[in-house]
Amino acid sequence: MQTFSFDPVELPPAAAELRREVREFLAEHNAARKPLDRAQSWSGSDPDFSRKMGERGWIGMVWPKKYGGHERTSFERYVMLEEMLVAGAPVGAHWIADRQSGPLLLNFGTEEQRQKYLPPVTRGEMFYCIGMSEPDSGSDLASVRTRATKVDGGYRINGSKIWTSGAHTAHVMIALLRTRNNPDNRHDGLTQFLIDLREADGTDLKEKNGITVRPIISMLGEHHFNEVIFEDAFVPDSAVVGTEHGGWAQVMAELAFERSGPERYLSSIQLVLEMIRALAASPTPQGHAAVGRLVAHLATLRQMSVSVAGKLNAGEDPALEGSIVKDLGAVFEQEIPTIAQQVFDLEPKLGEGSDLEQVMGFLIQNSVSYSLRGGTREILRGIIARGLGLR
Amino acid sequence: MLADTVNRLFEDLMTTELLIAAEQGEWPAALWHAVEENGLTMPLVSEAHGGVGCGWLDARVVLHGAGRYSAPIPLAETILASWLLDRAGIEPPHGPMSIAGGSDGAPLRLTREPDGWRVDGECPRVPWGGQVDHVVVVAPAEGAVRVGLVAKGEFNITSSQNMAREPRDTLRFDNAPVNVAGTIDNLPADAVTLFGALIRTAQIGGALERALHESVLYANDRVQFGKPIGKFQAVQQNLAQLADEVAAVGAAGSSACAAVDLALQSGVLDDAWFRIAAGKARAGEAAGKAASIAHQAHGAFGFTYEHILHFSTRRLWSWRAEYGTGERWAEALGRRVVEIGADNLWEVMTAND
Predict the structure, then answer these.
(1) Is B247 in Cβ contact with A328 (below 8 Å)?
(2) Cα dist. A138→A160, A247, A379, B6 in Å?
(3) B173 and B83: one domain?
(4) Strand A128-131 and strand A172-178: pairing?
(5) Are residues B150 and B294 in the same domain?
(6) Which residues of chain A, if any, have pLDDT below 50?
(7) Given CB atoms, is A151 within the 8 Å cutoff of chain B?
(8) What CATH number is associated with residue B68?
(9) Please, what is the Cα angle at B9 between B4 and B10, to 5 degrees?
(10) Residues in A 253-282 with any Cβ partner in B closer than 8 A
């Protein structure tokens, strides 16, 4: 049985100063944002806000300076992120690039790719999307069959990706594609590619390259997801990220980074804050107990998540711990709307009503997705069970 | 290193026979002797008083081990009692100790007589109250919360037990002589409940880890339908949730202990209160959930007295209720959070950084 530990971590002194700076920034640029909009959390997107964050040096904070980064510690990045999320700031446009695509390129990209694709990210001018899932490949990611076929000077791509957040606005997609079939090993023969979708000035590159983006409207009536269809789309040889046919290991490393950040337990924080506000106006013992229980979970999850950040900072591989944080975090985020409904005798509403009613109405529906994205609950628990020595 | 000492000691001495004998009232003298010999009762005692001078984060390792191995001795209580004495300026005596503060709404009463201090009052559910050599009492007197040491024989004992058949005795103090020294700065009047919750949170973390360990062993060993039941996804998914709870309570316990260490430096106990409340609330919830999963995984074998699992799960059910249920701490925490206000929640959440 693999052991796991979540030792307390002391944040560096620079973190406190940064926290103050971020709060000042938020007081200036986020104060007018309504609770319902804040509840979008890291799905809330505003390119102008991203550019302002870029100016402050808060995108690519831990990356090398030669790629536009700021070489700060991952603890400082953590502090910045949690302040943004608790404030419900619209960080969505650059989120994927900052969290996973940038680190992926730093780990596996060529020097040319880093020079071209990282500095604009840090300025808040280049946004990414991730092409992993396909209509027939969800949790079973290794079954992807959108194919990149070798041709003179590059590859031709055919197939489709689905649930691609932000494909309609992103400049770049990092896609996991099949480059060869190995009947003995499904994990072999997958390759990651950088696919240009837009010029820096926003000019669309998709249509003339056989790439079609179809919106998928969520049950809330919102457009975040897309289906992306490739019909003989061409990418040059220089679009390969890392090792040809060796994309599986790269994707697994990328997903591990994705699982333990503050966004994995803060997605419903706005509802906790609205519950506290409502109870301040009319306190009840039942409400106190419910909020206290949620805050106990919140404090524990933060401690666990910061601890994993410490392990990542120290170069360890906390894949098991990260899966535990994400599993517990999603359960927590999803139970908050249910508990709010138990505590408050009110009807959740959309487009009208109090902030509490509206945030509830949004999160009851939206939280369904929190245990699906980034690895389903069942997949995570399978990873944990493997760590326990059961598989 | 401390963890190695703790694990080796308990691994060598903690047998099922010893647990059964302790449940029948036998005092495990050899175990206590080994624990004391190795300095495990005094991690928090200053070097000036013959201790090790560690903080609560280190002491947690001992508390966790005591919980993990279901050690049927008042080790956690002695660690807490020694710490209170040490901070009040009294050199902790050898031998097992417990702590007593009175009951809800009726604290013990300390009075100063010409020939020394006396303590009066009744305290129910004192852990190992009938077995210990000394009891440390905490009570307000003369404008401060004071700590005193009462020797065995100076109080009446009515024996009782918790579900794990650990002694939980009612102690009656009638004008009992008590050694009261200095006061501890900022010690809250409910210190026994507060720090009692802290030691139980750490012990629950250990007992949860044991329940997980036993469950994984059993699931890999027990064959049904031609394969170990641990190969079935339904079982795997349940045990993963058990691991989640183990991880969460481990983190909550560490966080609370680290907060007390910080509070002792700053002199402000407020943040430590927040972490202790959160820890006991989280641990109390986890105890029930984890015990259910562990028993489900063990099937009928885990329901027998012969199997070792119940020594952990009966402790989990007892300890979650002791020094405030999770629900009670959650309500107190919630009231505090609502007073602080939504706009200051994250300030409080990050105060410990």
Answers:
(1) yes
(2) 13, 17, 11, 46
(3) yes
(4) parallel
(5) no
(6) none
(7) no
(8) 2.40.110.10
(9) 105
(10) 272-274, 276-277, 279-280
Model pLDDT for residues B82-103, shown as the tens digit of each residue: 999 999 999 999 999 999 999 9
Which CATH number does the domain housing residue B343 bear?
1.20.140.10
Give the pLDDT score at A260.
87
Instruction: Decide if A299 and B278 are in contact by the 8 Å CB cutoff.
Output: yes
> Does one domain contain both B226 and B344?
yes
Q: How far apart are CA B268 and CA B265, in angstroms?
A: 8
**Strand runs labelled E in chain A:** 128-131, 147-151, 154-162, 172-178, 190-196, 211-217, 223-236, 240-241
- Structural domains in chain B (count): 2
Distance from CA of A241 to the nearest CA of B (A): 34
- Which residue from B97, B89, B193, B95 is spatially nearest to B146, judged by alpha carbons? B89
**Domain identity same for B20 and B159:** yes
Q: Given the structure tokens 């390759």, which residue do they identify?
A: A191
Q: Count the residues in chain A.
A: 391
Q: Which of B164, B183, B202 is the last residue of a domain?
A: B183
**Which residue among A288, A302, A388 sits closest to B331, beta carbon to beta carbon?**
A288
DSSP string of A156-192?
Answer: EEEEEEES-TTTTT-SEEEEEEE----TT-TTTTEEE
Regarding whether B221 and B74 lie in a shared domain, the answer is no
pLDDT interval class at B184 (50, 70, 90): confident
Average pLDDT over residues B34-52: 95
According to the model, what pLDDT value does residue B266 have?
87
Q: Residues B132, B154: one domain?
A: yes
Query: How do residues A273-326 score in pLDDT, each as one tens digit?
Result: 999 999 999 999 999 999 999 999 999 999 999 999 998 888 888 889 999 999
Domain boundary among B183, B202, B223: B183
Tens of pLDDT, residue by residue over A170-186, are 999 999 999 999 999 99
The residues in A 349-388 lying below 8 A from B, measured between CB atoms, are: 378, 380-382, 384-385, 387-388
Range of the domain at B64: 2-183
Which residue is closest to A302 within chain B, CA to CA?
A: B349
- Quote the pLDDT of residue A258: 73
B206 shares a domain with B153? no
The pLDDT of residue B179: 96
Task: Provide the token pair at B154.
Answer: 């100076």
CA A382, chain centre distance (Å)? 21
Interior/surface letters B244-279, b for 16+ CB within 10 angstroms, e for the rest: bbbbbbbbbbbbbbbbbbbbbeeeebebbbbbbbbb
Query: Is the reported ipTM for this assembly greater than 0.90?
Result: yes
| pLDDT of res. B138 | 96
What six digits make up the tokens of A125? 């001018």
Model confidence pLDDT, tens digit, residues B297-310: 999 999 999 999 99
> What is the pLDDT at residue A314?
87
Helix (H, G, I), strand (E, B) or coil at B305: coil
What's the gap in Å between the CA of A286 and the closest CA on chain B? Answer: 8
Mean pLDDT of B238-258: 98
pLDDT of residue B46: 96
User: Are A378 and B252 in contact (CB < 8 Å)?
Assistant: no
Claim to verify: residue B198 and residue B297 sit in the same structural domain: yes
Domains of chain A and any CATH numbers: 13-122 (1.10.540.10), 128-245 (2.40.110.10), 259-387 (1.20.140.10)
- Write the DSSP string, A208-230: GGTEEEEEEE-TTS-EEEEEEEE
Mean pLDDT of chain B: 96
**C-beta atoms of A292 and B220 within 8 A:** no
DSSP 3-state of B158: strand
User: Mean pLDDT lowest for which of A123-137, B134-148, B257-271?
Assistant: B257-271
